[in-house]
Amino acid sequence: MLNWPVPAYSGEAMKASETQKPGNEAERKADEKAAKSEKLEKGRDVALVRMPAIDNLPDMTLSMIHQFPDAWKFDIPNDRSGEQIYNDLLTQLTWLGDHSANWPTSTDDAYRTFAHHVIAALYGVQPTAMNAGNTNVR
Question: Domain ranges in the chain?
Answer without folding.
Answer: 16-132
